[in-house]
Every structure is written in C-alpha cells, then in structure tokens.
Automatic annotation (TrEMBL), chain A:
Pfam families: PhnH. NCBIfam families: PhnH_redo. The keyword Phosphoprotein does not apply. This is Phosphonate C-P lyase system protein PhnH. It comes from Roseibium litorale. One of its GO terms (molecular function) is lyase activity. It comes from the Bacteria. The keyword Lyase applies. Keywords: Lyase.
TrEMBL record, chain B:
The keyword Hydrolase does not apply. This is Alpha-D-ribose 1-methylphosphonate 5-phosphate C-P lyase. It catalyses: alpha-D-ribose 1-methylphosphonate 5-phosphate + AH2 + S-adenosyl-L-methionine = alpha-D-ribose 1,2-cyclic phosphate 5-phosphate + methane + 5'-deoxyadenosine + L-methionine + A + H(+). It comes from Roseibium litorale. Catalyzes the breakage of the C-P bond in alpha-D-ribose 1-methylphosphonate 5-phosphate (PRPn) forming alpha-D-ribose. It is an enzyme of class 4 (lyase).
Amino acid sequence: MSSLSYSGGFAEPVFAAQAAFRAVLDAFARPGNVISKPAETRPPEPFLGVTGDLLCTLADTDTPVFLAPLADEDSAAAAWLRFHTGAEVTRDASRAVFAVCTSLKALPALSQFPQGTAEYPDRSTTLILQVESLEGGETQVLLSGPGLAQERPFAPKGLAEPFWHEVARNNGQYPRGVDFLFVSASAIAGVPRSTKIQLQGA
Amino acid sequence: MISAAYNFAYLDEQTKRMIRRAILKAVAIPGYQVPFASREMPMPYGWGTGGVQVTAAVLGPDDVLKVIDQGADDTTNAVAIRGFFEKTARVRTTTATAEATVIQTRHRIPEEPLTAGQILVYQVPIPEPLRFLEPRETETRKMHALTEYGLMHVKLYEDIARHGHIATTYAYPVHVAGRYVMDPSPIPKFDNPKMNDCEALQLFGAGREKRIYAIPPHTEVVSLDFEDHPFRVQEFAEPCALCGSTGVYLDEVILDDRGGRMFVCSDTDYCTSHRPSGPDDQSAAEWENAR
C-alpha cells in the first residue's frame, strides 16, 4: 500500500458528500441531464476525481464495490477505496452494490450483477462508468421515461451500439435491473433502469 | 446555537449514506417502497420521523427549508421540525413556497406550483396502500411484484356500491409511471393531480414503517378510478373567507357554538400572499376576533 492511499479524500467530508449526493440525486431524477460536478477528491489512477467523490459519498462497509477491470487486492485504487470508505473491494460481480468501470472493454455482462428480485428490485447494483466526455459521442440515444418531460438526446463518448442494446434490455426487465451513473472529469449523468432507450436510426 | 455534540443535520454520516442509497433506488424505481434502516429520532413516531430523516439526508447548508403541517407553517409539527433543522443544521428557513428549495410536508401539497429546483419531502404514516386490504407484508410484496392490484379496485368498487361514489377522500391511491400503486400519504385527494407531471422531485419517508419512496419530476401519476366513475377532486361552494381565492383547498373553521363557521385556505402562505388589502382587511379582523 503506497502513501497515495491515505491522501486525496474529501477535505470537508460532510458538506462535500452532501453536494455530491445532490448532484447524483439530480442525475437520477433527470436522466441524461449533464450535471457539472467539480472533483473534490484526488484518487489514484484509474479513478477520476468525480468517481472518487461518488464513492466517498455513497460507499461504506455495507457496500461491496466491484472494479472493472478487476483490481489487485493491493492496487493503489483498491487501497485508496478501502482506506477512505471502508468498503470491501470484491472480485465477485454478483455481490456488488456498486461497480466502477474505468475501461468499458472490461465491463462484464450486466446480467453478472445483482438485478434485484421481483419483491425487492432495489437490491441491485449501481454502476459507475467513467467516460472521456458526457457529450459529443458518436452513438446518440434518445432517453424517455420518468424524470423526462420530453425525449432527451444523450451521447457520452466511447459507448457504442452494443452497450446501449444491453442498457435497453436492462430497461426491458423493469422494475428489476441495474442503474447507471456516467462520470467524466467534471460532470455526471444518470440513466436509471426506468429510462427507455431508443437508438437513433434504429 | 448549533450544538457541538451533533453532526450537521443531526444524523451521523453513515446513516445519511444509508438513507441516500435508499433515496437513489427509490428515484430509480418510481413508486416502489425501498426498505431502509430508520433511526430513532428525538421525536415520537407519527411526528414525521421519516420525513425528517429524508430531509436530513438531502439538506445542505445552502438550502432554504420550509415545513408545513396540513398546509400551515405555524402549527406545532411544522414549527417543531423547522426549529429542529434551524438548530441542528443552521439552514435558512422560510414560509414562502417559492423561496424554499426543500419543503417538508405533512399531508398537503402547496397551492403554488412547485419548480424544478425544489424537493418536496412527505411525511408518511402508512406507506403500503394495500395494508388495510392485506395485513401481511410478504403478501403485499408479492402483490406489488405481480402488479396484482385488483383488490384495490374492489375496494374502490365497494365504496361505489355502498355510497354511490368513491368515498375515499384522502390517501387516495395512485398509479405511478404505469407500474406501482402508491399511497400518496394522507394528502386530500384534491392534491393528487398536482403530483402528476410535477416539476419538482417528490420524496416520501415513513419512519415507523421504515420505507422510502419517490416520484421523479415529470412522472405520470394517475389516481385510480373507473370509466363510469372517473376521479374527481373536492369542490368548494364558497371562496376562501380571508383571501377570496377559489380553486384552492379550504379548511372549515368553527367560529362559535351557534353553528358559525368559515372556510379558509389550508395553505397559510398562499392565503397571506393573496389577501387583497393586507392583514388589516375586514375578514382578517373578524378572524382575529374569532380567535
């Protein structure tokens, strides 16, 4: 464990966590809306600062976190996460309350994560996906559903059609399913399971 | 003065995280009741312990808090909860609906339309709309899972068979986003249409029953009814006796023991801001005399 693991947490944990939570709440309440969120934490690679903020806000000893690509037990990122949140870093996707994906290629099939049950659909994973930018991606989808007065275009960078097909399938099993938070260096956007996905041109 | 012994907004951070995770799942599944580890609060169950915990989890130092109890800013429950957050979070409080960013409510939705920057937090006594029809939690869970809501329609039908109309006037069940049937808390059914396609985020906290649920903005909320008995809200014959507003929810106020009474806005902020000539007009004087 390097000394990197001990530094870079919230300077003002109570207020920084509250502000980050409100950004996430807004992101889920208004899907696809890009919400600017300055990074407060300085986690080690491959985490972005905003990812660190979200983990420090939501993760703790009750929430196993899955990292994709799989992190070594003593990787800097895993050690930082354990030190600042107390969360267990799990290598078992089926136990993940949160999953952080820093490279989309390494993301396991969504069905590997807990989807919730018909009686308790809330017992499912929240995925945090790091992307280069939340706008200007080559594949654009149209979002609709709760939280959206009208269809909203959404095009984060680096997410291709097969990924969105999986997200649409995820919505298809509503109310079961996982929820998505997309994170860039300075903003977040949410796509909860309730959001309908329409691929443009499809 | 803020007490040094307490964290900001009373709850400890781990509790807030747990509540925040529940709120996020609630927003992701509109109308579904998320179980949460409700804490003991320094007030009895039934006084809004669920609403207070939700408010404490969302509240930040820049928020402006409004608390209403049956529409009024100046009744015991509202005053106590407002004082609680003034003391434990030192947030600015207000009685003006438009100024507030977080509004905690017991059994009313403000008359003034809510805006996108606002969060409405409801205090909920019994979150399960099916509870009086089926007492077992295992069964109501299953009924929600299977969208088995026939029993609720039977209940409304029995109302019609007995009274000739749907006699449920408060806590009137709604269907949220085409999936879950939800108890809107004991708001008058007059307020039900305000939940539909609302600009603001609506959060519901039930402390004793340990449930949190939510309606995101711009979500379809339909009050259950029948084609031949469509949902209707209460109508009032007279305008508010203090401000003259029509199309608002009125409370009956008994004036004496000879049958004297008046109908006034239940939303005190709306009423005060709609009085034609300020607080010294004639009806207000009568109202003062009556007190």
